UniProtKB/TrEMBL annotation:
SUPFAM superfamilies: Pseudouridine synthase. One of its GO terms (biological process) is tRNA pseudouridine synthesis. One of its GO terms (molecular function) is RNA binding. NCBIfam families: TruB. This is tRNA pseudouridine synthase B. InterPro entries: PsdUridine_synth_cat_dom_sf, PsdUridine_synth_N, tRNA_psdUridine_synth_TruB, TruB_C. It catalyses: uridine(55) in tRNA = pseudouridine(55) in tRNA. Coiled coil: none annotated. Pfam families: TruB_C_2, TruB_N. CDD domains: PseudoU_synth_EcTruB (cd02573).
Length: 299
């Protein structure tokens, strides 16, 4: 079984689920999961976790993401993007300064209402399923954070920008909200995810490239080891006399580690003396407790 992460370039027309399904066929293994949904018409970075790496899915989903997007002022659609059905038309703002002011006003935390055409679940059902049945239900606003907006280009009625944001942010809805602040509708026309969980678009691989590598028995070149995700954490090596505790997932005292002066205020990536990456640990109750274990002696 393959373990780790592949930085996939999701192409237009594929859902994130499609990518996972195709990779299961290409790599001939079932244990695969993605780290954050991308709309079918969006493209860009989609980190996909393999084998033991699937334990990372929730951790990677919770991190910052960056997008390049373009939207059109003056109209709204049911999907909040250009591929939906037009629902309203508005005057286009004449002032570029007013547009700029509206765009930058969203930097920081704000309450965002998710779109009806989204995978978010309400009462056990995905919103897009309800939307396809012609239903529009009330959605609770959720707190999102826009860390940065850069590369703003205004060529009315078109606006493009780069957005760095928190998990759970819908860029379509951000475009919608900018339009409404200007008393002019807006719908997204383009979306590219350029960064996700530390993975960048420049280092991503298409499904075609991955399939070719798999046929040539060199797909391992594209797999990023799980431990690399935690390379910024301090390293701790466990002495052999503590291996039983280590392999059974027990908490570890400082005396179990070869290193001295470990910072108990920081998380720790833990190895055995043979160099196997075991997992990440957190200090509490005067010991390092396992947060996520990735090593399996049976592999």
């Amino acid at each position: 079984m393959l373990n780790g992460i592949i930085n996939v370039y999701k192409e237009q027309g594929f859902t994130s689920h499609d990518v996972v399904a195709k990779l299961r066929g290409i790599l001939r293994q079932k244990k695969i999961g993605h780290t954050g949904t991308l709309d079918p018409n969006a493209v860009g970075v989609l980190p996909v976790c393999l084998g033991r790496g699937t334990k990372l899915c929730d951790m990677l989903t919770a991190t910052k993401k960056q997008y390049e997007t373009t939207f059109l002022l003056g109209k709204e659609t049911d999907t909040e993007d250009i591929w939906g059905v037009e629902t309203a038309v508005f005057p286009v703002p004449e002032s570029e300064d007013a547009v700029k002011e509206a765009v930058f006003s969203f930097i920081g935390e704000y309450d965002q209402i998710p779109p009806m055409y989204s995978a978010k679940k309400v009462q056990g059902r995905k919103l897009y399923e309800l939307a396809r049945e012609g239903k529009v239900i009330e959605r609770k606003p959720q707190k999102v954070r826009i860390y940065e907006i850069s590369d703003l280009k205004i060529n009315l009625p078109e606006v493009s920008m780069t957005v760095t944001c928190s998990k759970g942010t819908y860029i379509r809805s951000l475009c919608r909200d900018i339009g409404r602040k200007l008393q002019s509708g807006a719908c997204m026309t383009k979306l590219t995810r350029t960064r996700s969980s530390g993975f960048r678009i420049e280092a991503s691989h298409t499904l075609e490239e991955i399939e070719k590598a798999a046929k040539e028995d060199r797909v391992s070149e594209y797999i990023i080891p799980v431990e690399k995700v935690f390379s910024s954490l301090q390293k701790g090596t466990v002495r052999k006399n503590c291996n039983k505790l280590l392999y059974n997932g027990n908490p570890l005292k400082l005396s179990c580690f070869c290193e001295t002066g470990l910072d108990t205020g920081r998380m720790l990536r833990v190895y055995d003396e043979e160099g196997h990456f075991i997992g990440v640990y957190r200090w509490k109750k005067q010991m390092f407790f396992p947060d996520k274990i990735f090593y399996d002696q049976n592999d």
